[in-house]
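Reviewers asked in the last cycle whether our approach scales beyond single polypeptides. To address this, we selected a multi-component target totalling 1388 residues and predicted its structure end to end. The input consisted of the following lines:
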Amino acid sequence: MAESTHLSHHISQNRSSKAVFARLAQPFIGSSRPPSSSGLAGGASGHAALSAPSNSAPTSAPNVLSPRTVRYTLNCPVLALSAHVDGEEVVVAGREILRILRVGYNEISEVATLRQSGEQRKHFQYDVKWGTLHQKNTIATAGTNGTICLYDAKVGLLDRQLREHGRQVHKIAFNPVDGRLLLSASQDGTIKLWDLREKKSRLTFSGRADAVRDVQFNAGNAVEFAAAFDNGTIQRWDYRKDNIYERKINAHNGPVFTVDWHPDGKHCASGGRDRTVKVWDLYSEDPRRKAKHTIATMCSVSRIAWRPLKNTTELATCAINNDHRVHVWDLKRPYIPARIMDEHLASTTGILWKDDEIVWSCSKDMTFVQNDVVFATQPINSLTHAAFSWGPTSDFTFATQPRGRVRRSGPSTGRFESDEDLIRDDRRRLGRSSSFKGLKPALSVLETLTDKFISTQSAARITISSIFDTEAFRYLAQKYVIDLSGTTGGAPMSLAQACASNARAAMRAQQYRTGQTWKILQMALDWEDKMVERGNRAIAGSIVSAAGGTLVARRALGLGTEQAHRSGAASPQQGLVPETPQGAATPTQIRAGLADEELLPLPPPPLTFGTSLGSSTTSMDGARSISNGNSGIEDQILGPPGANSEVKSQLNGNGNGVGMGGSAESSAEHPTGNQIGVGPVNVGNGNNNGYYNHPYQGIGSVATVAATDATPPGSYGNGNGNVVGVDVGDSVEKRAGRERKYSLASEATSSSYGTAGFGGRESEGEDDAGEAERRMAAQGMEAIQEEDPMANSSILRQNVPDIRTPRTGEWHDGGESEEEREARPWNPQNLVEKFTDWYCERGDVQMCATVVLLLAGRVRVDERRSDEWVEGYIQLLRRFKLFVTAAEIVKTTQIEGLREAGGNQTFAKVGCGRCYKPIAQNGSWFCERCLQIQDGCVICRETVKGRWTMCQTCSHGGHDNCLREWFFGEKMDSCAAVGCDHDCLPRNHSDP
Amino acid sequence: MSGRSPNSSQANYIQFSTGHDDLVHDVAYDFYGRRMATVSSDQRLKVFDLNDEGEWVISESFRAHDASINRVIWGPPEHGQIIATCSYDRTVRIWEEQEMEPKGSNLRWKRQFQMTSESHTAVYDISFPPMSACSASGTSTGLKLAFISTDGTVHIYECREPQDLTHWIAVDVIHTLPAALGKEIEVSFCLDFCPSRWGGEQLVVGAMDKAQVYRHNRLGKFRPAEELKGHRGLVRDVSWAAGMGRSYHLIATACKDGRVRIFKLTTGAGNLAAPKSKYLNSSGGSGRRPRPGVGAGLGADLRGQDELLTVVEPEGGFGGEDERWHVDLIADFDDHHSDVWRVAWNATGTVLSSAGDDGNIRLWKAAFSGEFQCLSVIASHRSSSRWEEDQVTFDD
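The resulting structure, written as structure tokens, was:
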């Protein structure tokens, strides 16, 4: 024990040197302490356990770097404790126990058990105090029955009892100067001063303020004491004057549970049920009686103990319930506890500073714990010094401050990274306290508290425009065209026009890059559209040329295009339809059938026409078509197979064409078509690039007759036929893998479909195509051709693919044309993907969402992503309170979820007119809170159970009919409500 | 976003005083960016309004808790002016503005509900899931809130009728720690909901030195998913970036080991683009979806490679049981040279801010290469805040 005593003494002298010393001394001490010394603790060693953070082994060997936290478990809840003046022993009291413990550096042992009288046993020992000077061997306890028992600690026996209080004695206190004087505070509202040499109490003080919860002598002026009362007051008394208090302060709301004199003898801390600790100057002449300091804690304060340092600003508190921890507060920083010791599992009932670093505490969890403050948790370490938040966009607000002590932290999650921290911590504290020495002793530190914590957090709001250009966003949100049809205001326009418009807007907002993007998009769309057109022409031209056999492609272009166009646009339905039946039998017809299905959903002829053309045509118009024509011719010459196939196809085409021209011809041709039909497929496989060319030529050569026949009716008709044929071939080739059997039909379908979707902005697009394909497959060659016109139109569409195919080598059907298109970096699909990726990466949802909204029908965008863009955009718009634009988008968008939400989640909340609480069921007229029906109609007083009409100015209203009658029937001018003179319906403005 | 002029990274910097008596621990903008709430150790909650000059003007200040307030967040705007706070006093409190009460009166913000962590432990963090995620999970208009307390337990409460904020019920509990912690140990907990509604509710939780993603299973309960590995100290903060249609997720963490880390979550199979993810949730009705057996015929080919997963974890992730995310650590900065305490993404998930014990706030942004770089440093020298232009120039 000597070693440890010496050590602890040393520690109390100089903490920082302690750490150093301790590290050196540790092995020395450890070895010097005989193993049996822990045995000295006897049974207690079993209870004593080091609750060390992480690395300290639960041995009794001293380890200075681990907390000196020692726990001793008793067999009964402990309600109070008191230390011997020498500081080595403590008496703990509970209902059934009254024991003296010896607390060593690292272990706790039981010294004696005081025998309690039988009667006393029945009552809780609410307080225990060890006598001070002159009475070092006296232990006094206060019980719930109002009896004060005096024990002789040496003998361990009850000495005598003081029975004067009628009710429970809450607290007792020995006079620090004269231990023979004892104060007792009782529930009966009195404080009694006992001189232990006398039989009876010497004085009785009545605070006239309800029960007395606590009483404590002023160590600085031992004739005075402070008392805490249930009614929230604290009083300073001088026991030489027993009739009236010296000072009374209304300190708390609710009972005051505890008072503790500051070592300066001038100030007193009080704590109570109102969860605050307040520090008072009990000698202040200031009539306002304001607390010098206030600490707001979480729970009712049951005990307060100032840290025994000169000019201390720290105090320890514990709570009655809910919080089992012991807090150490520093008045310099009243909001954040300096230390927290969380050692108990139930309410802490007593706290006591053994010295300025060790806190003894006892608890209802039947334990007595020695806590080392230096090792206690510092809450500030787990509180951030920086805070910030992002506004909707470029706004950023922060408050930050460097932490006082910047630590380089390691992987450890322990409370301390290293002992350097400890040392520094101590130095800091010592440095602080040493600065107090400069103060005049008379002036309490509590008066000045010069180094009170002041938050130096600097707070600011920053707008980082480079991250998000708010102005531009607002501007563009309002200017961007998101809807072509003009339903959201503005004139209907084409896609390219919309892009151009958006480009202008972006430029004006100085978003040059975005503007360029829109321009590029516009150009891409324009180009595509043009290609479609050219494609038509080319086809037509080629057809013509084919028909002519020798015609130059160019010429054909010029002539053919328009013809084709016109025929395509006008004729398909009118001219072709009637003739269809005949063509049905042939392979062409299969296509026709396909086409039918596809066509049905398509928009009116002109639109489909244009679109299909556009989509398919990727190539440069003139040159391509020409080349096609030429090559076609060559191909003819070169490859008979191809020629055949084409012939076949052409035949089909012819058939169609014939159909247009005359039924007889078509019928005649059909047979041929059928015959050839088989062939084309094979051929098709063989030929790749040449194909498209071939058809034309084929017409010229092989199918000449048919072609010729067909030609007369309409050049365009031929063209169609050709195209179809080509498609078939291609489809056979390419699709062979996927769907060989019905390749023709399906292919045709898909191709035509795709084009149609393109041009017509048909949203169904692929699904439908898929269906169509499937159906076609099922039907196979026997496809029913009910509507020739459709077939024709489909053919027309298919023409487009043909034109493209030349380049890529793959052509004709939707899938292929897509591939082809995708090969072009400038095709809208590719552009949109690139653009959205790029802008998305940069968080510009506005751009992404607008592009997606505009081009949704034209390009494919991943649904999930487009959904997020649009939703994110709407969110942003709402954040900017651009609700109109947001609503327009909800209206325009094709994303069902958003549309649904727009429909379902738009609601108005209704509040009760009396209690202002929302009415739970929207549309209800009954407030469940006031249990009353809402005010009814202002005229008939009936509840309005439907539409409520009101004046927006005076907000009086009611039934539609009542108001109508009032204003128009009775020609009243002013409001119907009594006392409301508002002119709801000014006659001069609007007269019915 | 293109800047408008060369000096585009100039920042408009307006200092203000929070008037708090102790450290401000959290700041939160409301949805519209016109109001802001601050909380502090001084137990007060303050609400500021933005005036026309762009300055914050205090609107309300009241004592909201009995201990340091850790976090403040604004509720979804759909339900009015709601603030949630959490504190060391072991409670989460829901505050609602009372429009009819006079401004400046203490009655303006009314405490509508208080959640107490069951084990009497401090509450470290709170988060509202995005509204749309709530509605997508079938629970429709319910307002949810998740909080995590010192025992590592995440509680999720729901207010079924957000018109009346006084009734909340606990709907889910996640135990993030395998065992109870010693009382002496310094702890750190944080959580954040995924701001995207795709894939149902997703939550990233930082518990001690681990960060883990949690995802809803079919029954609408959270189950652990990917772990964000590599932390060598307490995870102080997590922030899940708004997706905004990107094909991946970004999660940033602040760590006591002095690092700011950014994790990138990508789907292994590229499922993001698959159309089948279309509104899975809304069709699920209260989060229940048909058992896999029902659609066996159709789903047979879909399963294939994911079958293993499905078998192993029959109640896999909600709305994407076959979504296994691949986690990449794409950034790991130690520029703070001290504990990092906070990270937050901006609204579009493109700029990350981080703050550490050095008192500096750093902004991080992806360069063209996709690599995150320091955009600027906001130093906290009092009254002499400075801006540093860094190597990263803005897009233009």
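The mean pLDDT of chain B is 76. We regard this as preliminary and will revisit it once experimental data from Aim 1 are available.
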